[in-house]
Fold:
Amino acid sequence: MFNYFTWGGYLLYKMWPEQKVFIDGQTDFYGEALTREYNQVNRVDDGWEEVLARYGIEWAIIPEDGHLGTHLIQTGRWKVIYKDRTAIILRTAPELPDAVSVTARR
Structure:
């Protein structure tokens, strides 16, 4: 999972050990290299797709209003599986039928 930094601690608390987070507030534990890779992806800097591939990232939970979501969708390899005013969840599963896509109404 690639997750928004601020949500990492909560996601870790709720989903570990079944799901690992990409990053959370324990950056001193993860090290500077991972923090740089997180920023590379989050900012859509050169090589961002390679970082996701290296870690085998198959889904992402990120802010709905960020530019990363737009870039993921534009690759054609990511589908929106959930979206509301706060978050967007995307998955790299071209075999997912479009009927799986859900948008919350709030």
About this structure: The chain has five helices and four strands. The first strand starts at residue 2 and ends at 3. The chain has a mean pLDDT of 90.
